[in-house]
Every structure is written in C-alpha cells, then in structure tokens.
C-alpha cells in the first residue's frame, strides 16, 4: 500500500491574484502547481484589464441588495448606462460618473474610443 505524499507547493489564486501555499498529495492535480513562490510568481501574475477590455465584459449586476448607482457600457446601445444593485467587485463597474463618455466610431468594437 502506498502512502500519500504531503509536499508543500504553491498555486496561483485567480481570485486574490497571488500565489498561495498548499500541500500536494503527490498524485494527479493540474498544472497550477509550483515548487516555490518564485516559480509561481514568475509564471502567474495579474494584469488588470485595459479600459477597452472592461467595456466588452458582460454586464453583471452582482447579488447584493444595495441600490447603488453604477455605470456600464451597453454594447447594444453603444453607450454607458446606469444600473443599480451593483455592490460586488467586478471589473465592469464605473463609479458615479455621469460625464463618462465612451464612443464607437462604427459598429465594430475595435473602434472604441475612451
């Protein structure tokens, strides 16, 4: 009978955007497993989306009940629109900004101007 290993390893936490410790049992798993913090940090790092990428993420109202004014880019209307009930941390959130202007030169999202 084989005993499971208990090897200290690192993995990249995509929610916290940092490398974390865990004990690897020695079998299976996936490629998100690194021997050292340095190896994990070199392979995985968080880069926030550019303003252009933020505009093309789907609108996500979150799950909280707070009626907070937030702005998002509506691809159908091709303009920023305001919605409430947005309290979770999502990249496609604009804080109270009635003067926010995002324009498209044509129907193509590649022509976005911020």
Structural description of this entry:
Strand 1 and strand 2 form a beta hairpin. This protein has a two-stranded antiparallel sheet. The protein is built from two helices and six strands. It is found in: Secreted. This is Kunitz/Bovine pancreatic trypsin inhibitor domain protein. InterPro entries: Kunitz_BPTI (IPR002223), Kunitz_BPTI_sf (IPR036880), Prtase_inh_Kunz-CS (IPR020901), TFPI/VKTCI-like (IPR050098). It comes from Necator americanus.
What's the number of helices?
Answer: 2
Strand order of the largest sheet: 1-2
Shape: elongated
Strand content: 15-25%
Number of domains: 2
Radius of gyration: 21 Å
Quote the average pLDDT.
69
The CATH homologous superfamily of the largest domain is called Pancreatic trypsin inhibitor Kunitz domain
- Share of helix, binned: 10-25%
Low-confidence stretches: 85-114
β-strand number: 6
Q: At CATH's second level, what is the architecture of the largest domain? A: Irregular
Structural class: alpha+beta
Distance between the termini: 62 Å
Task: From the 3D structure, determine the CATH topology of the largest domain.
Answer: Factor Xa Inhibitor
| Major β-sheet profile | 2 strands, antiparallel
């Amino acid at each position: 009978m084989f005993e499971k290993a208990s090897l200290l390893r690192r993995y990249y936490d995509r929610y916290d955007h940092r490398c974390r410790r865990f004990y690897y049992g020695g079998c299976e798993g996936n490629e998100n497993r690194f021997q050292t913090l340095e190896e994990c940090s070199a392979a995985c790092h968080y880069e926030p989306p550019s303003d252009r990428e933020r505009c093309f993420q789907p609108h996500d109202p979150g799950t909280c009940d707070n009626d907070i004014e937030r702005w998002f880019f509506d691809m159908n209307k091709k303009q920023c629109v305001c919605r409430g009930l947005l309290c979770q941390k999502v990249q496609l959130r604009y804080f109270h900004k009635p003067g926010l202007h995002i324009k498209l030169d044509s129907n193509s999202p590649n022509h976005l101007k911020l």
